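Below is how a single chain appears once it has passed through the pipeline. First comes the sequence as given, then the structure the pipeline wrote out for it. We keep one example in the README because the format questions we get most often are answered faster by looking than by reading.
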Amino acid sequence: MAYEQLAKDILTHVGGPENVNSLVHCATRLRFVLKDTDKANKEELEKLDIISVMQGGGQYQVVIGTHVSNVYEQVMSLLPNISTSDEADTSKGKTNILDLISGSITPLIPAMIGSGMIKAIVTLLVNAGLLTAESPLFATLNAASNAVFYFLPLLVAFTFANKLKTNPYLATVVVASLLEPNFTGLIGQEGLGSVFGLPFAALDYSSQILPAFLAVAIMALLEKGLKKVLPVSLQMVFVPTLILLILVPLTVLVLGPVMIAISGLLSTAITAMIDFSAILTGLILGATWVFLVMFGMHWAVLPLMLNNLTLNGSDPLLGMLMATVWTSGGIALGVALKTKDKKLKSVAYNSLIPCFLSGVSEPILYGIFVPYRKAAVIYMIISGALSALGGVLGVKATQLAGGIFTIPTFTPISSYLLIIALSIILPTIAIMVFGYDSKKKEVA
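Resulting structure:
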C-alpha cells in the first residue's frame, strides 16, 4: 500500500498520466520522459519519501533508491498503454548520445552484476579448496560468469536496436553471424583470400561491443532507406534479406576490422594515460566521478571499461574508481554516526546497504552529496586521493560488479583491501571532525 500511494503521488506531481510519454527505471531512478516538464512540481515531489529529483538527457528522473522496481510497478499500473522505451523526447527533436549508450547498457547491468557475483563465488570456492578447475561444476559456474561478456555483442545489438527503433531480432542475427561456429572456425587462419578486392580476415568478435554498435547503427539507416524504396508488399521478404546480404559482408570486411582496431587503440591509450601518470588520472577521475554520475557522463566511460575487460581480462579504470564507491560509503557512515536528524540518519544507514553489498552509491549521491555540500567536498578530496593511490598500486577489476562479495575478483587483492579500509575510515573520521553541512545546519 505504501508503494501504491507513493506511485500515485509521484504521478500527480509529474503532471499526471497524460503528461507522461514514457517511463523506465534503472538501479535507483524512475526515468520519465514528460510531454511538458513545466507541469512537474519538483518541490512537491521532494516532500515525498524519495531521495531527489534530477533533470538531464531529455528525462525527468525521480531518485527512489534500491526499491525503485516496486514503485515502478505501481506507477506502470496507473499508466496503461504507456511506452517503456528508454528514449529522449524525440518529439522535440532531441538526440542524446549518452542516452543511447545508457539505454543500451542499463538493461544489461543486472546480468553483469549477477555474472560478477558468480565469478566472485567461484573464486572463493577455488581459494577455499572446495572447487577445482577440473570439476564439471567449475565449468558450469564459470560459463555462467563468462557468458554475458562472451555474448555481449548480441545483447548490445538487441538493446541498441530497441533504442534506435529498428528490428532488434534482425540486428541480433547480423551480429550473431560474426559468432557463428563455421565463421569462428576460420579465426587465426592465414591466406583466406579477398572479397570484392578487400582482404578477408576472420577476427574474434566475442565480447566486442564497438563493432556491434556500429553495425546496428548502419542497419537502422539501411532498414529505414529500404522501407522507403520498397513496396510494402515486398518489405517482409526483401528488407531482412538485403540487410543480411549487404551488412554482414560489410561488417566482416570493413566495419569489424576498423572497430576492433579502434578498440585496441582505446585500450592502449588508457594504459598509456595511466602509465604516464596514475596519480593524475586517478585524482581527476576520482574527484570528479560524482559529477559524471550525476549528469550521466559516466556512460561515456563504461564502454571503455568493458572494452578493457574484453580485450585484456581486466580493467584499471574500474580498479581505481572503486575507491569512489567505498568513499561514498565512508561518508554515509560518518553522517549516520554524526547526525541526530532521524530522517537523514535513516537515509544514510539505508544507503550503506546497496553501497557495501553491490557497489551502488547513487542513494548516497542524491541523499547526502546534493543537499550537503561539505560532505561532497570531503568526498571529492578523499575519493580523488584514494583513486590515485589505487592507480599507483595497480588495482584492476576483472568484472563489473562491486560490493564486499566481489572483493576476490580485484587484483592485487591486498592493495584493494587497503583502498577499501582507507575509503571507509578516512571519510568517517573527516565527517565526525568537520561535519557534513557547510551551512552549519547539521544536528550533532
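The longest helix spans residues 232-276.

See the next section for the split statistics.
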